[in-house]
């Protein structure tokens, strides 16, 4: 029997009144009237419905009748005193808890007004960009032939685990639009077999290599395509890394918007070059895991990231701009609220910034259950809801699906909006060439995310009986992608310290060094060297542990660390542990390898003598984190601190003191999701080298060996700052671990000053600065030239007129009969369909729209094309420098350009310097190369809140500094 849905606002899921973006019209109750039969699924939220609970209790007692009630209660009269005492204690505790609850309720009563983000309506229609015009034309033809139910199908997920992929919408069969298959995630294909586990985003960022960024994206998409995926749920450029302990920073490319922007855009281009749609995520300011979504952390609301307009533009939204400019097909809006309005229902963000200002032509999809209202999100610019279920996981009770059908029929969601949603999705499909059936056959993926068995059901999440079919075909799509994975892992390894110990030779140390060091060591310990060179490998992180896939979604830290955990992780096909590669690569005839794959190696007895004899010790330590749905140890998604985990610091200290009795050379290798503190041992005299290998993916050991033995000269650079303490990053860098209200509030009051910008602004000395990374060779910089390309001017050229016109469709609301379940249709339980059982309750009318809905918004001067005003992407000045390799090895170098804004108008806050260019170039020893940085108008501008545009300061000079890190600046120039 179809039950009436409970109104979520009564259950505290949504505030009763949402003035702007998350608007729920008064008719919402009806609007959510459910066609699903799954309301019986109770979850954590149901206990809130106290009045309902007590009502049903009295109903239960009433139904028993007076005599049976009495017979239940009567035995109490005869109970002993003890029972009475027990009962009074329970009642006492209950009263105390209730009083406590009342106090908390009082405290939290002052929750902020919902929707402090300004309204921006209506949603700009897609189809204005020259680059998309042909796809929109084709889409218009297809959409105009769709029925209402088909249109709704295209916009709404079919429900959690209803298809093979983590997300599927439904097809528009009679016009030939297929079901789309959406799959995580940024570092490989989640829940799939025979795929590549690439290095994580943070490792990619650390390569600073644009070609590799592109190549990894392309290889990832080749695999996705061959597995039958249409849409990849990556790359990730948010979180940006405001908080170094943020749980998911590792999925992105580093704590700087420019680096994220380039890496995100290159990845998008790589993915889309194979015809797979990329999804740039999470828009925006999902900077921490704690409280990221309602109920996951016990609170009814997600955290609100409160950001001002300028900071949003210059930091958090910046990399999304690059992705849009690169033609990204999809943007995933995030779980959190921004300025107290859910990101997926925030009209300023989606309609205003993304679709008008950035001219985004693709479709906005919700993160999984990030949609928190029905009509409100449609009006605010959401185009696709995922996974389709609404406020609760896997119950099939969608906020769209049949509700969207109803809303269009009664007029509360304008038909024009629905048409635009669908057109954006269909146009993206054409834009990527997925209409070519030879390349994209209309078949489900050849793997199931939900079972490893060959046979299973198509809708795993539905309890309805289904026929078993072949769901896993185990197709190997890895090709030679391990080569790219290995290159990224090697180039993403940062050499932090090297006192004449690296590169090693296969015999242990390079011959000359070897002799000298041996003499020293053995003189110091008063022994004679005999036999082979003695190397010790220490730490659990060097070994395979219990296998890379021991914990679900990689949600624990054991064995060597290849990735963080959560939806951004994959099933490793294999993981080359460092020990395996070292065993393989050290010359066994010359090297005696001693393995201690534990963080508490033995110290006494026979081991003591061995440790005293070691000449070289390599210690592996790590730090892990991940998505907030899983916790490991004291890491609830976000790390509780920046410490190396599992006693790694103590391990390094012990090894340093015992390796060759304190005279052996120690190399520390760190695998980590982000910055870790190294203060406890970094200055120990025999800690001679430190490698920061980030999260290297399946080729971990091989890539590390490439660096250790000098087959690859290190060229990785830090994509974040390694401070001396968490405090040094500033107040804003701290994760909010305990809620400060029923809607946790996080004010981004540090503004532009995150990571290195904070250290520079407040004169803090980092341990290793942003951009830092050593090489086995050295480079000399000279001859910086500034080559103006265009004349400076404050504002970009006028916003151009649209290059194309969005399609128009008939505005006649379709006949309600289009929305009814077809005759003889056998629905699967929990599956989200677009259909209604009856149209009797549909009352067309003039429904109220959110406040501000009728205010005409001025079009942004920063907009006008895909990526925004084209003038913002014009190169205004180029800077060239010469880089010579004057050291002993060939190698790649990463010249980085930092910009300081003109001094004029000092009241405008600005970072001391900001990254605005980088290239990786390979320079042979003795050779010189010229590197050119092209700076666009956007690169040279700040976001002027009053003028609502990017503004160039023209009345003074820009300063350029080029060097090898944000602090190692070698050559300078002005314009
Ligand atoms: C939630 C995550 O935040 C998002 O990144 C992911 O793509 C979806 N789940 C789907 O797994």
UniProtKB/TrEMBL annotation:
Protein known as: beta-glucosidase
Composition skew (Basic and acidic residues), residue ranges: 18-35
Annotated source species: Lasiosphaeria hispida
Record's GO cellular component terms: plasma membrane
Residues that span the membrane, as ranges: 83-105
GO molecular function, one term: beta-glucosidase activity
Taxon lineage: Eukaryota, Fungi, Dikarya, Ascomycota, Pezizomycotina
Enzyme Commission (EC) number: 3.2.1.21
Enzymatic class: hydrolase
């Amino acid at each position: 029997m179809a039950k009436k849905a409970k109104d979520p606002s009564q259950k505290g899921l949504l505030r009763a009144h949402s003035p702007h973006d998350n608007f729920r019209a008064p008719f919402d109750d009806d609007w959510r009237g459910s066609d699903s039969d799954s309301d019986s699924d109770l979850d954590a939220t149901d206990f809130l419905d106290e009045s309902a609970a007590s009502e049903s209790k009295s109903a239960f007692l009433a139904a028993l009748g007076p005599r049976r009630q009495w017979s239940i209660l009567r035995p109490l009269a005869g109970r002993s005193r003890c029972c009475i005492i027990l009962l009074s204690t329970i009642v006492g505790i209950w009263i105390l808890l209730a009083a406590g609850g009342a106090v908390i309720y009082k405290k939290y009563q002052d929750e902020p007004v919902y929707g402090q983000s300004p309204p921006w309506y209506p949603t700009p229609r897609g189809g204005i960009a020259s680059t998309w015009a042909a796809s929109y034309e084709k889409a218009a033809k297809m959409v105009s032939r769709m029925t209402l139910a088909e249109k709704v199908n295209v916009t709404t997920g079919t429900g959690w685990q209803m298809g093979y992929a983590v997300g599927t919408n439904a097809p528009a069969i009679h016009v030939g639009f297929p079901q789309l298959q959406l799959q995580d995630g940024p570092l490989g294909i989640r829940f799939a077999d025979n795929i590549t586990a690439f290095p994580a985003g943070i490792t990619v960022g650390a390569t600073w290599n644009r070609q590799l960024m592109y190549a990894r994206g392309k290889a990832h998409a080749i695999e996705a395509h061959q597995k039958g995926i249409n849409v990849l749920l990556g790359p990730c450029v948010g979180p940006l890394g405001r908080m170094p302990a943020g749980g998911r920073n590792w999925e992105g490319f580093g704590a700087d918007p420019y680096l994220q922007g380039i890496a995100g855009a290159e990845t998008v281009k790589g993915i889309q070059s194979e015809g797979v749609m990329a999804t740039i995520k999470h828009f925006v300011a999902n900077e921490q895991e704690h409280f990221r979504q309602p109920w996951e952390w016990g609170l009814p609301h997600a955290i609100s990231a409160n950001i001002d307009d300028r900071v949003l533009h210059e930091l958090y939204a910046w990399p999304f701009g690059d992705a849009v400019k690169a033609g990204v097909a999809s943007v995933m809006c995030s779980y959190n609220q921004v300025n107290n309005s859910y990101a997926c229902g925030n009209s300023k963000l989606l309609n205003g910034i993304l679709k008008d200002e950035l001219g985004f032509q693709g479709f906005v999809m919700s993160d999984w259950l990030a949609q928190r209202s029905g009509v409100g999100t449609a009006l605010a610019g959401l185009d696709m809801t995922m996974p389709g279920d609404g406020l609760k996981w896997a119950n099939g009770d969608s906020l769209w699906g049949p509700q969207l059908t109803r809303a269009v029929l009664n007029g509360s969601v304008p038909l024009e909006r629905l048409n635009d949603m669908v057109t954006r999705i269909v146009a993206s499909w054409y834009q990527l060439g997925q209409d070519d059936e030879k390349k994209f056959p209309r078949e489900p993926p050849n793997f199931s995310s939900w079972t490893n068995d060959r046979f299973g059901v198509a809708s795993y999440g539905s309890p309805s009986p289904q026929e078993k079919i072949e769901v896993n075909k185990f197709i190997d799509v890895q090709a030679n992608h391990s080569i790219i994975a290995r290159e990224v892992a090697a180039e993403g390894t940062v050499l932090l310290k090297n006192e004449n110990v690296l590169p090693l030779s296969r015999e242990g140390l390079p011959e000359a060094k070897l002799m000298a060091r041996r003499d020293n060591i053995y003189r110091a310990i008063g022994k004679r060297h005999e036999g082979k060179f003695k190397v010790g490998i220490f730490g659990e992180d060097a070994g395979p542990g219990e296998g890379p896939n021991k914990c679900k979604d990689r949600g624990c830290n054991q064995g060597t660390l290849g990735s963080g955990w959560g939806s951004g992780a994959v099933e490793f096909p294999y993981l080359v542990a460092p020990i395996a590669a070292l065993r393989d690569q050290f010359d066994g005839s010359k090297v005696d390898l001693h393995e201690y794959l534990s963080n508490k190696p033995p110290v006494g007895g026979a081991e003591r003598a061995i440790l005293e004899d070691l000449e070289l010790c390599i210690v592996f330590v790590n730090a892990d984190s991940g998505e907030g749905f899983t916790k490991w140890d004291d890491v609830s998604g976000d790390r509780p601190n920046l410490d190396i985990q599992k006693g790694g610091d103590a391990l390094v200290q012990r090894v340093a003191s015992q390796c060759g009795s304190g005279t052996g050379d120690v190399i520390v290798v760190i695998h980590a999701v982000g910055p870790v503190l190294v203060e406890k041992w970094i200055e120990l005299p025999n800690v001679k080298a430190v490698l920061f290998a980030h999260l290297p993916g399946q080729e971990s050991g091989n890539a590390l060996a490439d660096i250790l033995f000098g087959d690859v000269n290190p060229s990785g650079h830090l994509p974040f700052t390694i401070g001396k303490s968490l405090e040094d990053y500033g107040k804003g860098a701290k994760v909010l671990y305990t809620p400060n209200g029923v809607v946790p509030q996080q004010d981004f009051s540090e503004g532009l000053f995150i990571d290195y910008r904070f250290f520079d602004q407040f004169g803090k000395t980092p341990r290793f600065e942003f951009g830092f990374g050593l090489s086995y060779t050295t480079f000399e910089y000279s001859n910086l030239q500034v080559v103006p390309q265009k004349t400076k001017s404050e504002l970009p050229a006028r916003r151009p007129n649209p290059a194309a016109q969005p399609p128009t469709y008939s505005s006649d609301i379709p006949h309600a009969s289009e929305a009814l379940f077809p005759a003889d249709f056998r629905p699967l339980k929990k599956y989200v369909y677009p259909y209604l059982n009856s149209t009797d309750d549909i009352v067309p009318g003039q429904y109220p729209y959110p406040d501000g809905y009728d205010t005409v918004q001025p079009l942004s001067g920063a907009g006008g094309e895909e990526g925004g005003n084209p003038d913002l992407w014009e190169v205004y000045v180029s800077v060239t420098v010469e880089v010579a390799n004057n050291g002993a090895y060939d190698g790649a170098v990463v010249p980085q350009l930092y910009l300081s804004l003109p001094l004029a108008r000092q009241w405008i806050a600005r970072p001391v310097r900001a990254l605005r260019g980088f290239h990786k170039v390979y320079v042979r020893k003795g050779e010189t190369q010229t590197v050119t940085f092209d700076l666009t108008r956007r690169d040279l501008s700040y976001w002027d809140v009053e003028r609502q545009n990017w503004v160039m300061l023209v009345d003074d000079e820009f300063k350029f500094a080029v060097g090898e890190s944000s602090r190692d600046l070698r050559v300078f120039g002005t314009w």
